[in-house]
Amino acid sequence: MEQDAIEFLEYLTLTKGLMNKSIKDYLDYYKLFDLSKVSSQEYCDKFIQDHRNNSVVRGMLLNLLQFRGMHKIIDLPPRKTGSPKIRIAREISKKEIDMLKDYLYSKSFKKGLIFELMYQGALRKVEVPTIKINSFRWARWMADMDQPCHLIVLGKRDKERVVLINPETAEKILNYYRKKLMFIELDDYERFANSPVLLFGNMKEHETYNLIKRSSIKCLGRDIRPHELRHCRATELEKMGVAIKDIKVYLGHSNLSTTEIYLHRNETESIENIQNIMTYSHTLKGRVS
């Protein structure tokens, strides 16, 4: 270890009395720092920003400046404050949804089904691994197979919510898993419907995330995150005429303000909607008069 580093280590240990973990972290950044530029405000600012302005790099530099007696000459950039910046969800077209679904089904039934359930149910990535065969309300659906099938999922803090799965998708699940689990006879559907078997085995949350992200890059040339599917589904439901309060329940949100963030309103569409309402209102008024 060079003499400068040894002296800095002694300063951190004896003068500042820091713990071994902090000292080790500081020395890692110290090795990356160009000591010949320690008097440069521009270099110090850039060094901190290049390392994401985190508390460790700030701590190292502050101690180094104090050690060298330069802490009154060099000012550290402001700390990060407030909530972390939220990555904005991008719009996904219907064509992209269909392309990604077909791509995943071409890889395996399981992958295609994961995507369909995530999209139709606006599921969180953490909810997918919890789905069991008896999470579906099979008896209710089989009484009228033209209707969507109810799926009970465990959301945040193990709070249950109901989502709807298209009848075509429900039929795929019924046929595939009845054969896979050897519930061949239709009369035996009760034993099938009550099965506590996990739909996707021991799948982990991060596997769900990676499946969607990596597959979208290969299929669409851009990455799509599972949470963006929730945004897309929420916007689709609003365009279908579903009230925002109902969308809030469907997504499992506690606050309406959170749901509003999910709705991607196009300016042109909004103006057209308002125009249609005003035109309809004016027509009704003319008829009354």
Number of strands: 2
Widest sheet, order of strands: 1-2
Percent in strands: under 5%
CATH-defined superfamily of the largest domain: Intergrase catalytic core
Please write the CATH class name of the largest domain: Mainly Alpha
CATH-defined architecture of the largest domain: Orthogonal Bundle
Distance between the termini: 93 Å
Question: Could you name the ranges where pLDDT drops below 50 across 5 or more consecutive residues?
Answer: none
Q: For the CA atoms, what is the radius of gyration? A: 28 Å
Number of H/I helices: 14
- CATH fold assignment of the largest domain: hpI Integrase, Chain A
Structural shape: elongated
Keywords:
289 residues, mainly alpha, hpI Integrase, Chain A, 2 domains, two-stranded antiparallel ribbon, 57% helix, 4% strand
Describe the structure.
- Helix content is 57%, strand content 4%.
- It is mainly α and 289 residues long.
- It folds into 2 domains: 3-67, no CATH class; 94-262, Intergrase catalytic core (hpI Integrase, Chain A, Orthogonal Bundle), CATH 1.10.443.10.
- Strands 1-2 form a two-stranded antiparallel ribbon.
- Helix 1 (3-15) packs antiparallel against helix 2 (20-32).
- The longest helix is centred in the last third of the chain and has 22 residues, at 267-288.
- The chain is elongated, with a radius of gyration of 28 Å.
